Amino acid sequence: MHPLIIVLGAALLDIGANMAINRSVGFRDKGWGVLGILLVLCAFTLLSEAVSTGKIDLAVAYATWGAIGILGTALGGLLLFGERLRPVGWLGMVVMAVAVALLTTA
């Protein structure tokens, strides 16, 4: 399997973990908190698997994973919890995406 597909899976697990942790309300709801921890452990396991293929550098894998996770978490927060970013925050997302694109071509 292509390592970027594995990184995408890891990022989706990370987004799920962030949504679960937010839903746990500071770990007051232990079920959501435990789910969040388990999902982030799975995300790091997949990220490690992607890097261990030797077909993707750690810097590229981690930056890609982080960027997808940040964007997905912002979108998930907006859609599921009504959280809003100011326009400068969305501009930051664009800058981040451009930075990751540049990193992957370096």
Automatic annotation (TrEMBL):
It is found in: Cell inner membrane; Cell membrane. The keyword Transcription does not apply. GO terms for molecular function: amino-acid betaine transmembrane transporter activity; antiporter activity; choline transmembrane transporter activity. The chain crosses the membrane at residues 30-47, 59-81, 87-105. It is a multi-pass membrane protein. One of its GO terms (biological process) is glycine betaine transport. The keyword Coiled coil does not apply. It comes from the Bacteria. GO terms for cellular component: plasma membrane. Keywords: Cell inner membrane, Cell membrane, Membrane, Transmembrane, Transmembrane helix. InterPro entries: EmrE-like, Small_drug/metabolite_transptr, Small_multidrug_res. Forms a complex with MdtJ. Belongs to the drug/metabolite transporter (DMT) superfamily. Small multidrug resistance (SMR) (TC 2.A.7.1) family. This is Spermidine export protein MdtI.
